């Protein structure tokens, strides 16, 4: 079998998912790994029997054996590494967010065009089983026209610290880290309408609350609490060309009685709650019905979704499939995310008329 030879750039927390799931895919051979923390890369290389280890991304990209890469580094490297990888003739799976600014996103899009290579943005939730189950209902018109979506991803304690809370390296806080997933999922289910305006607010009122005792939370590989210049809460109202709207709020920390993950879309014939559990709301014979699909899992299964994402990327690189999360969607997402930050800074709505 002709195997896809893959290199992984960045060997921190999320690289473990990429490595595990590439290792599960019989069409893939892991051939290279890179991290500026060489010891971390070597540890992973030993675990997954990866022959080539680098501390400098340019050396990995110069290895002609490598056909495709996963980019699992900090957000401030995504654009530069994506462009360099594409220009070196590699297919690219880039972790979310695509990058930090719209200008960078357009440069990556241009690099994808000139290279002709596969580029997949790591919008992993698109590849979730419940997402694809719901798509069957939406694609066959069961929900009618979706005109409203709502997403909340609220952590009461969960600023991962390290680079995540350093704006220069991350580009922002919960909006760019968590909001990107839930906004994208709603937008994907809504049929990716063109954005016309964004009104947002960001707050940095509580700090990272590293002082809190007795509650554990996710921390970056190089956790460091002292540097925190990102927002701790963001909310936004996004309007689309077809009149549809999306409301979202996300936090790294908030005085709230519990964490919340809720995602729903609402159409003219039916609606759906995607999280915390897939359910479909509709009307029949003058009765309102809640339909509960019968499946092993009705919430997003992170590992299974990730496996689908990796398999889909592999299939696309081998010419069998087309990615579900192309660079153009990453560009639109950067427009939305950056507009939330801009709107919050200016205290006014951002409009995209004619853009
Ligand atoms: N899809 C998801 O659900 C998901 C989940 C977590 C993280 N992510 C994304 O994955 C990326 C990495 O996140 P993480 O949690 O693994 O962070 P991490 O800090 O655990 O790992 C990042 C690694 O990148 C390395 N690195 C940074 N800059 C480098 C450079 N210039 N050259 C070589 N190596 C470099 C660091 O040394 C570190 O080992 C981020 O973009 C994040 O948004 C996605």
TrEMBL record:
<dbReference type="InterPro" id="IPR052515">
    <property type="entry name" value="Gfo/Idh/MocA_Oxidoreductase"/>
</dbReference>
<dbReference type="InterPro" id="IPR055170">
    <property type="entry name" value="GFO_IDH_MocA-like_dom"/>
</dbReference>
<dbReference type="InterPro" id="IPR000683">
    <property type="entry name" value="Gfo/Idh/MocA-like_OxRdtase_N"/>
</dbReference>
<dbReference type="GO" id="GO:0000166">
    <property type="term" value="F:nucleotide binding"/>
</dbReference>
<protein>
    <submittedName>
        <fullName>Gfo/Idh/MocA family oxidoreductase</fullName>
    </submittedName>
</protein>
<dbReference type="InterPro" id="IPR036291">
    <property type="entry name" value="NAD(P)-bd_dom_sf"/>
</dbReference>
<feature type="domain" description="GFO/IDH/MocA-like oxidoreductase">
    <location>
        <begin position="132"/>
        <end position="272"/>
    </location>
</feature>
<dbReference type="Pfam" id="PF22725">
    <property type="entry name" value="GFO_IDH_MocA_C3"/>
</dbReference>
<feature type="domain" description="Gfo/Idh/MocA-like oxidoreductase N-terminal">
    <location>
        <begin position="4"/>
        <end position="123"/>
    </location>
</feature>
<dbReference type="Pfam" id="PF01408">
    <property type="entry name" value="GFO_IDH_MocA"/>
</dbReference>
